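Appendix B, Record 12. Input sequence as logged:
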Amino acid sequence: MVTKARAPYTITGNKVIVDYGAMYCDSPEQLIQSPLFAEIVERFLLKLAGKGSPLFSFAHAAMPGLKTREMAGKFVALFKLLASHTADEIIGLGGEYGGLLANRERLYEFIAELYNFWRGHERVIYHISPSRAHYARSSLHHAQFITANEKFRNLVLSVRRKIGENLTGKNPAVYRQLPAGANMGVLAEHIDWDCPYELSHLKEIPFILLSLIEPPLMLYSKSNTRKGKYVEIPRLTEDLTALSPAEWFCFPAKVGELTAFLYFHQDFITLGLSMSNLFEIATYEEIEGKKPDLLMLFGVQHGSLPADAVFLEDRGIHIGLVRHCDAVDYFGYFKKTALTLHNVAMLQRGRMPVHGAMVSVKLKEGGSANVVLMGDSGAGKSETLEALRSLAEDHICEMTIIFDDMGSLGMKEGRVAGYGTETGAFVRLDDLSPEYAYKEFDRAIFMNPSMVNSRLVIPITPYPRIIHGYPVDIMLYANNYDSVDDDRPAIELYDGVEQALAVFRKGARMAKGTTDEKGLVRTYFANPFGAPQRKEAHEKIAREYFNAMFDTGVKVGQMRTRLGIEGFEREGPRAASMALFELIRSLADGKEMENCG
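Logged structural output:
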């Protein structure tokens, strides 16, 4: 396979991806004369022409007879002059810009909209360290990259302002320090890893060792829900892994205790980099010479797949493949593919994967409890825990999230313990309180914020906590469809294993629009990510863990969040959280536990 060189920059869809080493600019002249600047101006003109904008009519009238690319060239030349001369000085020089400068108000509007057009793109800069030079591990190199990004942002801002000031002859009364450069950045390096021969071309793809984000970041993907099921395929064929390394990156993630090499095509780069708000980045030492536990190729363009997302096991590596199409342009596919691989691997290791949330709650009055809430997407797990945090704030001194969406149960010191997978959360914005959303604004990546099923990705838990292993005290199924009355309390505890398994196994919930499902649906153990595909193994392991929980006094039951019932989107999780708080307090009262110290 012939490896082509990476392009200095790529514009794909609404994304601009810039190799900062190849496109380095440290002066207004270099910025304005760059090929990227010229292409952005040309694309802006084409957009104006396509919608019949008066701004295009203004440009066309000032430069009659010119093609769009020629018009863009004239604008670039004028902007270069305006970066160092006033409009009056340019007119005094004579030349060909009189038509554009004759209507300075309209030209200023053109410049402002061009700036907005640039900022409307998802903008990524990257730098790949010299092959196997180990520079990307250096804190000095990190600092240099961060400084370079700040210089780029300031350069774009200063050029925009200087051109505007020289055009109007006025200084702005208000300066808005908008993120005008890149809103995401990547420092990467080629690292030699224990790669099967059939995948040797993957060694040409650099690993991301530093991710830079300028939040709050708004991303708009082509899809906003996850559809279909994960299908297992028998083997990995050569055509499925055919790719051009120059168009790919690898995000090396720690998914719980497992190491995952998550490869993605550049068309999905902003979603791929958003993983840094969700998973711990693996270190150089965890990559070099090592074979990953999990491997994903996101954006497969060749071969035939029976579904948008598939998985298999090959030579001890759990591999996921996601095809290149608009339907998978959604962060949920990144996250859930990695977690499906994790779950299958956990079942092989004798652990039970859990689609749900786990939190460790410590009370001010003394005592604590570790709670697992199992439930599929939209069941009300995150909403109930956030309601618990806010409503019982006067009584709770610490809440530690162990996992927010996916974890596993293992045995530790004779007890069932919970282990997490993610250091962040991918939460549904529609069902969160405005207070919570605004509180997390400055760290968040917002996904399609104006649409149904809008989400945000936020960091929530340090990595050492998610792999620590916390003994389970309470295990509840999150039921979002049942009402609450005298016969059906917010929390119902079970007397035995069979009663509990029947509810957890059924996995019923009211679909909330987070997938393509509608109405009341059922998913085996509320977990379509590996559990149904390995049902025989899962059934055996689940029974072992439920027996262990009942044998050790774990409170097992279901919690009615009513999140799927119209009108109870807020009240349901709030009432459930108060019932959960009372259960935690009663459990703590019966134990000898240390208080908040």
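The chain has three domains: 9-168, 214-348, 352-418+462-589.
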